[in-house]
Predict the structure.
Amino acid sequence: MAYDDQNIFAQILAGKIPCKEVYKDEHVLAFHDIQPQAPVHVLFLPRGAYESSQDFYASASPGEITALARAVAAVAERLGVVKGGYRLISNHRHYAGQEVPHFHIHLLGGAPLGPMTSGK
Ligand code: AMP
């Protein structure tokens, strides 16, 4: 499937739509989710045009992959969720409920998060 370069996260990365920025570097942008599901809910995006974890982890450069992982660890530390615990989620396509077709990692924390899935 071709990457949709008009998706909302592509527009945020292009500076066309604002976000509540938490972190940025050459490879990564992180911002607060607009509909937080926990006291801390931050999204981490690679700047490159990747639809989901599948193409990102299969074809991104080691530098891009490392930058994303390091950004998660740094922001988790800065936002104070390391001690209490946090959850990372990446949804790939429809069974997982992916809404925005630009790869992103959700960081959720700041309170007990409940069961990992709906269990159905
Ligand atoms: P997913 O279902 O994994 O694709 O998650 C998409 C996430 O993007 C949801 O948690 C939305 O609340 C969030 N979202 C959608 N639009 C925006 C936006 N403009 N700024 C911040 N978060 C957004």
Notes: DSSP finds four helices and five strands in the chain. The chain has a mean pLDDT of 97.
